[in-house]
Amino acid sequence: MALQSNEAAKAALEAMMNVEQWRDKSAWYKDGIEKGIEKGIEKGKVAEARKAVERVLRKRNLAMTEAQAAQLAACDDLDILERWHDLAITAATADEALR
Questions:
Q1: pLDDT tens digits for 30-52?
Q2: Of 25, 73, 32, nearest in space to 49 by CA
């Protein structure tokens, strides 16, 4: 009798662990991981672009106001940050750089 219970339990567990059942969920999981990695890479690029703008402004002694610093900190658009970096290289003021 115990042998039959063990076999039934084994069969039930094997059915729950059926690989075919998890195939779609596995693809969904992998897709989520890939998107998470891409998002993390993008966040890293944005953070580095912010630092680059700050560094150029600081090296050129172009002080930012609190509002400008907040504007820079709030920006998460890589294209805008790259434009600000390029402008900061030649701008006469921080205001000119952050347009």
A1: 888 889 999 999 999 999 999 99
A2: 73
